[in-house]
Amino acid sequence: MDKLKELSENGFYIAKSITPISMHKEIFLTFYDVLISMISRHKIRTDFQIKNIEDLNYPDDIKELDKLVFAVSDFNRELMGELYDTVAYCSAFFKLIGNPEIEKTARELMSLKSYSTMYSVTHRIRMDEPKDEMRRAAWHQEIFHSYPDTRFLQTWGPVIRNSTVSNGTIEVCKKSHQHGVVDQDWEEFKGGGYAQRIIVKDEIVKKHEILQLEMNIGDVMFFDRHLIHRSGYNSSNEIRYSQVGLWNDCSYKGFRTPKPAFESRTFSPRDNYDMQMKKIRSQ
Ligand SMILES: [Fe+2]
User: Fold this and answer.
1) Helices (H), ranges, the chain
2) For residues 71-90, average pLDDT
3) Ligand 1 mean position to 69 CA, how many Å?
4) pLDDT tens for residues 213-224?
5) Does the predicted TM-score (pTM) go above 0.90?
6) Which of 118, 170, 252, 264 has CB atoms 3.0–4.6 Å from 247's, for a disulfide?
């Protein structure tokens, strides 16, 4: 079936083997490198010998990476947010999401021209740790996790290792996009791992057949903003790494670029200025 027809009928289209394995190795090394810096910066003790990055084999040593994530997460859960933010703006990640095949497929699926501008929103690599019910994404539609009055296509794909039913691959409600926006509840932060969740009502989910979509690294799924989806439960002992993000059509009339808001994790420019000036002037 033609990809556009598949997207409009099923609400999703999976492009097979479009990102190279070498890219996943690069992302694997990026995570490892950032984690090594974090462990050294915060003097985190581990009960295992950390393997030298230069001696790592990919994919055989993915478990070595999991061990570093667990060590940092156990030491201070807040550092995971910093890890997310670091990877999301590093050059290797830009290369992954800027992959020409992803770009070409997204344009084709939105019926855009080869020169049409697509704007990236909330592209991230999710890390879903084993047995983490608290941070698992519940049934939702992406529409309320983005900006109003935009036209976008969502992407999801396994990174570093394949996504399986056991490690909690993405689940979708078959053909649910056909009903547009459905009834859902807005839940504010309750001390868990999320700021808020907008959850589709159970009785709506129950009307659909649920598909658990296993994918291999290299595969990228493109899906409709109304498709009801969630993270599966990670019942394995490994981390599921996945790329998530939205491509927005910049030519769409309602599209207005959101203002990026960067905030220092340490001092503000003003704090820094005050400290430096105080030092100079006291000399
Ligand atoms: Fe989502």
Assistant:
1) 3-10, 21-41, 62-75, 78-88, 91-97, 100-109, 202-205, 269-281
2) 97
3) 23
4) 999 999 999 999
5) yes
6) 118
